[in-house]
Amino acid sequence: MKNLLRPALVLFVALTVMTGLIYPAVVTAIGQAAFHHEANGSLIERDGKTYGSEIIGQQFDAPSYFWGRLSATTPNPYNAGSSSGSNLGPTNPSLPEEIKGRIDALHAADADNAAPPPVDLVTSSGSGLDPEISPAAAAYQVARVAKARGMTVPQVEALVAQATAGRQFGVLGEPRVNVLKLNLALDAARS
């Protein structure tokens, strides 16, 4: 038994040092050197103030801001510590109620808009943290935001166009609009 105890302890200590200290230190150093912005949370900072992360959605519900996808995280929307979808399937009676509630909220905020809202504005995201919406979802909200801010529709459309990112490498994914970046651009345009 004594012959087995010493090698087991040496192996335990060696693996603990390698996997618990050396490996994390090397990965952290590489991350900080090669991907500094991403390794630190992809934070959006302006004038020394942090507004949020470009990869985590935020709650916007004022008519003067673009709204993102619904978040099903608990206890608060866009809670990064509790990422989850709603898990409401197409046969769940709660799903149409949730969608109807969101459609009603969109129509209440912009009664002049009779167009059907894009699907990403009325359904929850898979993670509950989506920071982006489709260009169609942004276009649907342009008139409401322009009216609430006292801007012209073309002015707001120009900001949406600037905030629209294309497909990654030209082929992956879909065009998208980061809601936080767009809302910050709106605030900067007002200044």
Number of helices: 6
Proportion of beta-strand residues: 5-15%
Could you give the order of strands across the largest sheet?
Answer: 3-5-4
Count of β-strands: 5
Class derived from helix and strand content: mainly alpha
- Helix-strand sequence: HHEEHEHHEEH
- Rg of Cα set: 23 Å
**Count of domains:** 2
Reported for the largest beta sheet, the result is: 3 strands, antiparallel
Low-confidence stretches: none
Percent in helix:
40-55%
Question: If you average the pLDDT, what whole number results?
Answer: 90
Structural account:
With 191 residues, the protein is mostly helical. It has two domains: 2-36; 45-190, no CATH class. Helices cover 48% and strands 8% of the residues. The protein contains six helices and five strands. The strands form two sheets. It has a three-stranded antiparallel β-sheet. It has a two-stranded antiparallel sheet with strand order 1-2. A hairpin with a 2-residue loop joins strand 1 and strand 2 (49-53). The longest helix is centred in the first third of the chain and has 33 residues, at 2-34.
Summarize the structure.
The chain has 191 residues and is mainly alpha-helical. 48% of the residues lie in helices and 8% in strands. The chain folds into two domains: 2-36; 45-190, no CATH class.
What is the secondary structure topology, with strand pairs?
Elements: H1 2-34, H2 36-39, E1 43-46, E2 49-53, H3 94-109, E3 132-133, H4 135-149, H5 153-163, E4 164-165, E5 176-178, H6 179-190
Antiparallel strand pairs: 1-2, 3-5, 4-5
Helix pairs in contact: 4-5, 5-6
